[in-house]
Amino acid sequence: MASSSAASQDRTQLQYAFDQLAPYSASASAVNKAPYDVFVNHRGCDVKHQLASTIFHTLDLMGLRVFLDKEALEPGDVIPAELQHAITSSSLHIAIFSPNYAQSPWCLAELSFMLKTGIKIIPIFYHVKPSDLRSIDQGIGIYADAFSEHENKGKYILEKLEEWRIALNNISFHSGYMVCDSEDEGRVLKNIVKFVLGTVKLVPLEVAKHPVGLVELVQDFEGTTLQSDHTHQNAKIVGIVGMGGSGKTTLSKELFNRYSSSFERRSFIFDLRAEKNALHNKQKKLMQDLGVSNGLSFDCVEEGKNILANRLTSVRVLIVLDDVDHIDQLDALLPANINDLSSDSLVIVTSRELGVLTSWGISCNFRMPEMNWSHAEQLFCWHAFLQPFPAQSFESTVEKFLKACNGLPLSLKVLGAHLYGKKSRDYWESLLDKISRILPADIRQTLQVSYDALDKEEKEMFLDVACFFIGDKKSAAIAVWDGSGWSGLHGWETLFNKCLVESYKDEDQEEHIWMHDHLRDMGREIACMQSPYRLQDAAQILEIQKKSQEKILIRGIANSIDNFVPFKNHMLQPSILAWIKNSVTGCSRRRSKRHPSSLGLKILRVGSTKFRKEFAPLSEDLLWLCWYGFDRQRILPSWMSFRNLHVLELQDAYNLEELWADNVEPPLQLRNLTITDCHKLQSFPSSIGRLKHLKMISAHFAPAFHSLPDEFCGLQSLEHLQLRSYRCLSSLPAGFGDITNLRHVDLSRSLLKTLPVSFKQLINLEYLNLSYCKKLKLRLDTLENIKKLEYLNLDICWELEVLPREIINQTYLRNLSVMDTKLSYFPTNISRLTMLETLRIGSPLLTSLPTSIGNLSSLTTLGIEDCHQLECLPHTMELLNLLKEVHIKRCGIRELALGGDGSPHPDGNLMEIGTLPASICILKLMQCQILKEIKCIGGVINLQELEIWGCPTLDGLPSFASFASMETFSIRHCPKVQKIEGLEQCRSLKHFIADCPKVAKIEGLEKCRSLEELRVKTCWKVPGIQSLENLERLETLELSCESISALKPCIQSLKECPRLMSIGGRVVRFVMPILKSLALPKLSVMRFEKFEDWENIIPNSLEPAFLWYEEGNESENEESEGVLQFQSEFHGKRVSIIVSRK
């Protein structure tokens, strides 16, 4: 009741302040009005057409909603209610005190009310002084006469006049701005506007109901785009590209909200794809937002272009163009030369069409990543359960949905919202089964927009990817499309630019195809409904054969490896074989003149099959043959036709002795050849030299292969050669260098002792892997004519004593690895390697690194290993301001400093000891036997991961106050370290691991609210952990301390850890008896240190459901241990029990 009375009194006072203003009745119409940003209190006849008007129009052009006077009200508004709304809804008040200000009761009443709201007021003293607002009751100041006049009229009660005097007196002591004859009014106005823009928070765009993962996404965006090529001299334009539903608009809204206050003007243009015919209206909105229209009218888009180009040169603007799908939209809304925009302007363009952005000249583009598992779970659960984790008993079902959504935010939101309130697990399972067959309409509609925009050939290529090529080499798909009479490379680029496909590189830098599961499912659904058919399993073949006994178009037959056995059995049934053969041969006869190569069976993937001769017609038109389980064949069947074959893949070819006989016509159209596990293959046929179109050979693990025929050097089109694990291959043909188109060569794990003299003729070589060639020696002139090299791996070349002379001139080199060699020195002048990003060095004979390493301006990753004589790093290391990741293992370094910024120290020189730059994000120090000290000489705010392992002489750690951004800290097997303090500074810490026997003190963990993993092992002297109640995100807990009783206080606080999935160590002894009362919904794993602990703690009623014994490593750095693992029901929970059997 007291609060209600107070509220009533406040409302009375607010109304009383306006009861003398005008004879209007109050109205509640203001309740639903939009808020204002700024309220300007002023005396109209003094300043309305001067300062007040200028402030109003300037802020209005900046996009702020400003209330100047009652003319800003809409017709029919009731003035007092509207004024109250305008004042109370504003973020900032401006009061302009002019010579005649006090003559207006309206102004005085507004001022009094403004002060009561508590909203910040900025006074502007316009040709008056602050002292004029004081001592009015004593007749002092220019406002005294006005108050005497009010009093003489007797219109206002004395209490009201006194209230106004107090208001003026109070505001006179607020800091503000003076405008007088001696002041530059323009300069003062500029300062006022700058202050307002810095104070008023613009109404933000609504980003997302549950903005999961946005902070990390923004950081990723800023790190990879805004910092990549931004200069302060030119405007910046960046693209955000991704498939439909990937979160492009969400990210752009968040960026717009974050950056708005840093720009003078700003505009967000939504949904250009949906309104592509309304460019004229979009231009008007852009001009209005940016304040460049000034009442101008224009009749066409071309006129709008000219206005925008001429009016945007003088102000810093932020522009976001959302969902662009045509270059005309960019032409209409942006200047033809982006540098015509003011310096430091920013334009963000979102699109599904990378090609549109690059064609217009946008080279800096951010490709939307797949949402990680943790964020996907949170987003889905927020929509399904209104909490960031699954409801109890729904954990495994949620996991299935997350796999089905595959990180696509649209699917996570749509499916999660659909399941909200559905408590039946049967319903969830039925929906899961349905979406595995048919995508929900709203998801499919979003995805199909890009598919519908493809032309006929591009749609066929999309369907090929969805049905056949996911995970395969990009070059193979392009070869098949070229063989189909299509433009393969152009088609791929179109699909990629529309974000319908992605590519990833394997460890050999070979590009493979990836497609999101939902796009795949949509493509396969489309493919099932149209000809030519793309058959993917035995059931589908049987179904189509039953429906149509007539000849049909079949483009491809493929099957997943898991279904090869039933697939093979069905394929060999006479009726099926006859039907497929008749369909294929019939199609071959019906080829059209316009598309002579578009019909017939083009793609065939089979496994563990021994074909009959009746299958010969199937091979006539094949472009791609992938034969899994080729272990029964000594040679390819001679009756098979290879005349059109472009791609041949033979997997698990254990018994293959030769590819084809010398008297057999080779596949002259072959582009790609892949063979794996060809144990008995000794060489290639000499006729391989006739394959003038062959671009790629990848043949792995051929231990009997001893030589390449001389004819091999006639493969003038060959670009990619991968002969890995050829343990009998000791030399290459003398003419190997004649294959001048070679770009990628991998001869790792061979017996090569040297390279032919002609090798230096490979002028197009970009990738060279000679790792594990343990007998290889290189001549100094090996790289003499090679200038395009980007990747060079010489790891474990034990006889390598010196690097080729031209290594220092490889200006395109990005990755250089020379670990475990006999190098006694590293080239001193490596300054020209300005594009080098990764450097890995290792040799027991190496005593120093060159100081020129500080000139490797692009270096991001550095690995130093087994350099036992290397006692310090070069002092120029701190100049590497892009260096992110450093691994140092088994080196003789004695001390290490962190936080260098490249600036001279008090003595005018750089630090003598090696100092890693402040840019470091990941630092791993392993088995450095004489490392004694790690110290911070400056800020290391970027360090996210610090791992120290096996450093026996390290006796202390640097202050954690320097590690504010640290997410992972691990220290193990460092017997001299005794304390870990200051962890409360690490507010971002997610993973903490300590495994050091002498550590007796760990402080600050309880304040690390972001902690997900906490392991304290063999730290027997640690008395305990104070509390876990703040660790709401904790998922893994493993504690082993000296005093068991010291662990008790933290046990009950486990109930505050709803995400806890795994517990281990001595703490388990206390958890088991009270497991049920803790109500840990996600707990699924328990780890016991000793077998005896398990026997004594586990109740007899706990019977193992699954039981097995493992020998394995918990990590690469720990000794093997026996593990007993089983699953069982305990207190209604399915729990994995893991018991160490040391």
Automatic annotation (TrEMBL):
One of its GO terms (biological process) is signal transduction. SUPFAM superfamilies: L domain-like (SSF52058), P-loop containing nucleoside triphosphate hydrolases (SSF52540), Toll/Interleukin receptor TIR domain (SSF52200), Winged helix' DNA-binding domain (SSF46785). The keyword NAD does not apply. The keyword Repeat applies. GO terms for molecular function: ADP binding. Residues 34-196 form the TIR domain. InterPro entries: Apaf_helical (IPR042197), Disease_R_plants (IPR044974), LRR_dom_sf (IPR032675), LRR_R13L4/SHOC2-like (IPR055414), NB-ARC (IPR002182), P-loop_NTPase (IPR027417), TIR_dom (IPR000157), Toll_tir_struct_dom_sf (IPR035897). It holds the Pfam family NB-ARC. SMART domains: TIR (SM00255). Keywords: Leucine-rich repeat, Plant defense, Repeat. This is TIR domain-containing protein.
